[in-house]
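Please, structure for the following, as tokens.
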Amino acid sequence: MRARVTFAFWAVALAPLPALAHEAGQPHPSGSVVGHDRLTGMAEFGLGWLLLPGAEVCVEPSIAGCSRGDSSLGLEAWQLFRATRSFAAGAGLLLGLTPTTDAPREDPPGVSRDHTRRYFTVEGTARYYAFSSATFEGWAGLSSGLVVVSDRFESTEGRTDKALVGPRGVTIRTEGYTVGMAVGAAYLFSPAWSFGAAVRYGSWFLPEKPAKSPFGDEASLRGQVNLFSFGINVAYRVPL
């Protein structure tokens, strides 16, 4: 009789444990993650398009004038920590490697040069997940950080296969700060992986007075530059 009572007690005591484990965010037997009650780390990688519709792109504004607007392929990487089901914070970077707008310029007679430009940002971010289920998520977030615009001017004259001492050109780097907001959504196709999309609006705040090279070239962007970006991303998450 005592053995039967003991067996019944332990059967009742242990019965709720699987359900509690599922509620705590552990993998469900079906293969989906039910909750986010424990700290979760997430690495997110994105590919998209960066738009600077109102940017005035100039390197010799008093001589050759300016071009308006620019765009570039954007590569993003974010490291996020999701403390609860609704909130996440982290940091990431953005690379704009293929600007499509050339700054107008007038090279001196007999001197031919190339001009290339790159964008780089490092930002912190916070996200609020307004909707979160076993397969879909929707979020809104804020970000702020640093931006660097790199302008490189390189002569195309006298290029040879011989190694030379020193650089072939000059680089102007302009630093500023950024603020922005974004919205996004993701589809969780496995317990650890998700595929999503995001849209972002923000502003870069660069010096009003552009830096100059020893040859009189100016940084191609200045002042406030507004931006839009949109793209797709893939993320990997793991409980910590």
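The first strand starts at residue 40 and ends at 57. Confidence is low (pLDDT under 50) at residues 5-34.
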